[in-house]
């Protein structure tokens, strides 16, 4: 009967060995990461790096929009709303749209999936994917961005709440706020460089 007596004892010690081994293996991995370079950053105190082709909240040049609806037709989720008082066309002398008034150009960010399909057919190149990503707000209504109203304030894209709140204390956010207030497109010279 010695064989049957050693069976449970062997299993008991085997379990202890396996448990200790797996704990040590886990601790070894944890310790290795404790001393390796961190991959996270303290955003927004540190600036996030964006890929050059990052697709964020749109930037819209209302003065070039001829309200042709091409972007709205290309949108797979029908989240672009356009209204005009009469047909518009580009004045070749100024490069700006003339004719009827652009009454509304709005995008519903509850539905937008940032696919950029709206930017491709635009004949006047006036709708762009920007670099801002955070459009947090207190109401669902705020997720519908009225670009024509922003244009009346000289803006091409909304100024996010976090930019408003952190501009006074974080230098790079202050610079970003200044760019937004001046209506400078992120996709050109004001692009956010990699850190
Ligand atoms: S990015 Fe895509 S989903 Fe968003 S408005 Fe443009 S076409 Fe529509
Ligand atoms: S495709 Fe361009 S010009 Fe036409 S409605 Fe859309 S943003 Fe305006």
Characterization of this structure:
This protein has 195 residues and is α+β, with helices and mostly antiparallel strands. It folds into 2 domains: 1-36; 58-182, Alpha-Beta Plaits, CATH 3.30.70. The chain contains 5 helices and 7 strands. The chain has helices at 2-34, 70-74, 147-152, 161-166, 171-182; strands at 58-60, 80-84, 88-91, 96-99, 102-108, 127-129, 144-146. Strands 2-5-7 form a 3-stranded antiparallel β-sheet. It has a two-stranded antiparallel ribbon with strand order 1-6. Strands 3-4 form a two-stranded antiparallel ribbon. The longest helix is centred in the first third of the chain and has 33 residues, at 2-34. It is elongated. The N and C termini lie far apart (71 Å). Bound molecules: iron/sulfur cluster (2 copies). One iron/sulfur cluster is lined by residues 65-71, 82, 121-124, 126-127.
Topology:
Layout: H1 2-34, E1 58-60, H2 70-74, E2 80-84, E3 88-91, E4 96-99, E5 102-108, E6 127-129, E7 144-146, H3 147-152, H4 161-166, H5 171-182
Antiparallel strand pairs: 1-6, 2-5, 3-4, 5-7
One iron/sulfur cluster binds at residues 74-75, 77, 79-80, 107, 112-118.
